[in-house]
Amino acid sequence: MRILGIESSCDETGVAVYDDEQGLVSHVLHTQIAMHAEYGGVVPELASRDHIKRIVPLVRMAVEKADMSLKDLSAIAYTAGPGLIGALLTGAMGAGALAYSLNIPSVPVHHMEGHLLAPMLETPRPEFPFVALLISGGHTMLIKVAKPGSYELLGQSVDDAAGEAFDKTAKLLGLPYPGGPGLEALAKRGDGQRFNFPRPMIKSPNCDFSFAGLKTAVLNACLEHRDHLDEVRCDIARAFTEAVAETLVIKCRRALRLTGLKTLVVAGGVSANTDIRSSLNSLMEKESGHAFFARREFCTDNGAMIALAGMMRFKAGQIGDGAIKVFPRWPLTELKAL
Ligand code: KG4
Ligand code: ZN
Asked: Which ligand neighbours the alpha carbon of 182 most closely?
């Protein structure tokens, strides 16, 4: 069985083909980052219009790269939410039209389930059950995953998401949107001793996060050093990254101890950060367990994760009813277990 996956929830159009036996066969991506950069963030209407232009050529490319024809597909998976409503609708309509014309089912996929399962595109694959840390632009969550689709929320951010904190801090340091990759590069050249930022909520006895206070601490440091910000940017970036990484480590350790699990799966855009990856790898070494990540290009939005999650839902018979439906807000915990 082969499934085509379409991702269009935000500013990336991703299309991929996943084969039941061979795994990922092809994937292509168009990012709108350059288009939104001059506005300092994603402009929803521009995002939708660009997805409309990209979907059909990308579907053609993904199918061509897989050396197959559309007729070889068993189903079309697409991101049905959460995300920007217009952007989601472009993918849902593209997938719906294609599925209807080929007389095959369409499969709605939850974007965060896609992220969460993306490390399963790698070898070795993580085994269920595990604790998942989802760190993206819109979400920061710790989840107990008993099996695909069975998601118990252990904790989440009470304010900004981790990616949002990266983007806002990057903006204060004069970096373009999205700030994560630029901030990572700055931090590599920084001295972590010069600033000491708070590790928010580490004393509260739960798995919740808070990143808004950290952003304010960065703002204060920027104001204090505004006359010579260029000299301290790298140090601020380093200290910020260390504060985020240590907070994530403390909360992940708590989640592992609480659940008694030894496998940590880390997913979402922020999991591309090499400093955060190495902090979580050392945690798991100390805990005599293992951390699993997707390859860096599959940490941020992509079609491969949607094709993989779509294949799992398709095989479990969870297909769409043919109507074009999207869910801009959609709690992960509402999904059916497989
Ligand atoms: O998962 P994602 O692509 O989109 C959402 O579903 O939100 O995550 C995007 C977020 C952005 O906030 C971006 O700055 C952050 O991931 N990000 C990074 C890195 N690469 C992307 N944050 C830290 N370090 C990175 N290397
Ligand atoms: Zn995402």
From this structure: 1
Nearest atom, ligand 1, residue 241 CA: 23
Tens of pLDDT, residue by residue over 108-117, are: 999 999 999 9
**Closest ligand by atom to 135 CA:** 1
Distance CA 109, CA 149 (A): 11
Contacts of 148 (CB under 8 A, 6+ apart): 113, 117, 128, 312, 337, 338
Residue 100, pLDDT above cutoff 90: yes
One fold for 2-116+298-334 and 128-293? yes
The third-level CATH classification (topology) of the domain covering 128-293 is Nucleotidyltransferase; domain 5 (3.30.420)
pLDDT tens-digit profile of 190-242? 999 999 999 989 988 899 999 999 999 999 999 999 999 999 999 999 999 99
0.85 surpassed by pTM:
yes
CATH class of the domain whose range is 2-116+298-334: alpha beta
Domain locations in the chain?
2-116+298-334, 128-293
Mutational test site, ligand 1, from 166, 172, 276, 277, max ligand atoms within 8 Å of CB: 166
Question: Ligand 1 pocket by C-beta < 6 Å: which residues?
Answer: 10, 115, 136-138, 163, 166-167, 178-181, 184, 268-270, 272-273, 300-301
What local confidence, expressed as pLDDT, does residue 82 receive? 98
